[in-house]
From TrEMBL:
This is CoF synthetase. InterPro entries: ANL_N_sf (IPR042099), CapK_Type1_Caps_Biosynth (IPR053158).
Length: 418
C-alpha cells in the first residue's frame, strides 16, 4: 500500500482514510473533473472502484506545454457549445503567456474568476472584510492581467470602472509611461480614493514613485495586494513609503486561479482551500522545498488535475514562502538554492531602488541592473557576489528603466538556462 503524498492544504480538508484510499473530498473532485472534461479520460482512464493513492500517483501530471500542444478545445466534448457560450457570455476567455511558454487560451465559466477571488479574500483576515461587500479598488498591472475585462486600448475613465474597481493601466511597460500618463493615473487614484490597491509589484513601486513625486497622499488605502508577479523587499518598502498599509501576497495564475495567500514577507502564506488542492513534490532533495501540483475545485470549464505550475515553495514554521519559478532560481555549485529572497537579504541596508534584476551572463559573471534615485553603494557588488558563491563576480549598473519580457512580466533573478 502506497503512502499518501504531502499536501499543503489544511489537514482538515484531507481527512485520513484507511486502506490507502483517497480522502472523500479529493476523490469527489477528481471524479467531477473526469465528468466535466474528456481530456483526462483520454490521458488516463479511471476505474469505478474507490481510488487508492497508488492510482492517484499514476494520473499523469498536466503541464502548460501539454495544454498548449493539445489546445484548449481538448478540454471539451463539443467545442461548438463553448463557442456559442462565448457569444452569449456564458463563458469568457483569456490568453496567458506566462514567462516561459507559448500563449495559452483559458476558458472560464462566467463568474468563476470573481467567485474564486471572493474565496481567496475570505481566506485572509486583511481581505475578508472586502469579500462580500462593495468597496473601492484600483488595479495597476499588465494589460493582459487575470481577467479579460482589463482594457487593451485607450478608454476613458468611466469605461475602466467596474463595480467599484478602476483599471489604471493602458499599456504594457510602466518604465515608458510619460509623465502625462502618471499624471492621469495618480489623478484617478485620488478620484477613486480606494480602500484597496492591487497590482504587479514593479508597477506599484513606480506608482509609489509617481505619488511621492507629486506630493500626493491617499489615506483611504487600507491594504495593498501584491500579485501578478514576484515582489522583492525593495518593491514592498517603496510601496509602503507611499501607501503605509499592510501588504498581502496573493499568488495564483490565470489558468488555476488564486492558490496561496499570506501577508507579504511574513512567510505565512497558506493554500486557499476552497479554491484548490496543492500537492507538494520534493525538489532537488532540498529540505522543505517543493514543486507544486494544483487540482482546482468546483471549476466547470478547463478544470485542472495535478497541474504542474512550475513554481517552487519553501515550507516554514508559519506557512509557506513562494520562491519563484523553477527557471528563476539559481543553484550554487554545491547544489544549494538562491532565490530572490536570498538576494533581498544580501542587499545592504543603505541600498534603495524602485526595481532590480540580477542577470547571469556567464558561468561566474552577473550583472545587477537597478533603477534608483542614487548610485548604489560599492558594497552591493561584493554582497551579491558573496551570496552567489565562490568565484562569482557582480557588476552593478544603474538604469533609467528595465524592460519586461514580452508577456509584460519582470524577473528579479535570471540565471543562465540549463
Amino acid at each position: 500500500m502506497q503512502s499518501a503524498p504531502t499536501f499543503a492544504n489544511h489537514p482538515d480538508l484531507l481527512e485520513t482514510v484507511t486502506d490507502g484510499r483517497l480522502p472523500v473530498s479529493l476523490e469527489s473532485e477528481i471524479r467531477k473533473i473526469y465528468e466535466r472534461s474528456p481530456l483526462y479520460t483520454q490521458r488516463f482512464p479511471l476505474h469505478s472502484e474507490p481510488l487508492q493513492w497508488g492510482c492517484y500517483r499514476e494520473i499523469p501530471a498536466l503541464s502548460k506545454k501539454e495544454i498548449v500542444e493539445r489546445g484548449h478545445q481538448a478540454f471539451f466534448d463539443d467545442y461548438a457549445v463553448i463557442e456559442r457560450g462565448l457569444a452569449s457570455r456564458k463563458f469568457e476567455y483569456e490568453s496567458t503567456g506566462g514567462t516561459t511558454q507559448s500563449p495559452m487560451t483559458v476558458i472560464m465559466e462566467d463568474g468563476w474568476w470573481n467567485s474564486q477571488t471572493a474565496r481567496a479574500y475570505r481566506a485572509h483576515a486583511l481581505l475578508a472584510a472586502y469579500a462580500d461587500r462593495p468597496y473601492r479598488k484600483c488595479v495597476l498591472a499588465p494589460v493582459g492581467c487575470s481577467s479579460n475585462i482589463c482594457p487593451y486600448e485607450d478608454q476613458p475613465f468611466p469605461h475602466r470602472y467596474f463595480d467599484g474597481t478602476v483599471y489604471l493601466n493602458l499599456t504594457s511597460d510602466p518604465f515608458v509611461f510619460p509623465e502625462s500618463e502618471w499624471d492621469r493615473i495618480v489623478t484617478e487614484v485620488q478620484a477613486v480614493q480606494p480602500e484597496v490597491i492591487e497590482g504587479e509589484p514593479v508597477y506599484l513601486s513606480l506608482l509609489a514613485r509617481a505619488v511621492q513625486k507629486r506630493g500626493v497622499k491617499v489615506p483611504s488605502v487600507k491594504v495593498v495586494i501584491l500579485t501578478y508577479g514576484k515582489a522583492s523587499v525593495q518593491h514592498a518598502k517603496r510601496i509602503a513609503e507611499a501607501f503605509p498599509a499592510p501588504q498581502v501576497d496573493l499568488y495564483g495564475s490565470t489558468e488555476a486561479g488564486y492558490i496561496f495567500i499570506g501577508e507579504a514577507f511574513k512567510d505565512d502564506s497558506r493554500v486557499i482551500d476552497e479554491n484548490v488542492f496543492v500537492e507538494l513534490a520534493p525538489f532537488r532533495d532540498l529540505p522543505d522545498v517543493f514543486q507544486i501540483f494544483v487540482t482546482t475545485r468546483d471549476r466547470e470549464a478547463m478544470p485542472l488535475l495535478r497541474y504542474h505550475t512550475g513554481d517552487i515553495v519553501r515550507r516554514t514554521p508559519t506557512g509557506y514562502r513562494l520562491l519563484g519559478r523553477e527557471g528563476g532560481l539559481y543553484f550554487r555549485p554545491d547544489g544549494s538554492l538562491v532565490s530572490p529572497s536570498e538576494i533581498d537579504a544580501a542587499l545592504p541596508a543603505d541600498f534603495a531602488c524602485w526595481h532590480y534584476s540580477l542577470i547571469q551572463t556567464s558561468e561566474n559573471r552577473w550583472d545587477f541592473h537597478y533603477v534608483a534615485d542614487a548610485v548604489a553603494p560599492a558594497s552591493v557588488e561584493s554582497a551579491l557576489a558573496a551570496v552567489l558563491g565562490a568565484g562569482s563576480r557582480v557588476v552593478a549598473f544603474r538604469r533609467r528603466f528595465i524592460a519586461p519580457a514580452a508577456s509584460g512580466k519582470f524577473a528579479l533573478l535570471k540565471p543562465l538556462a540549463r
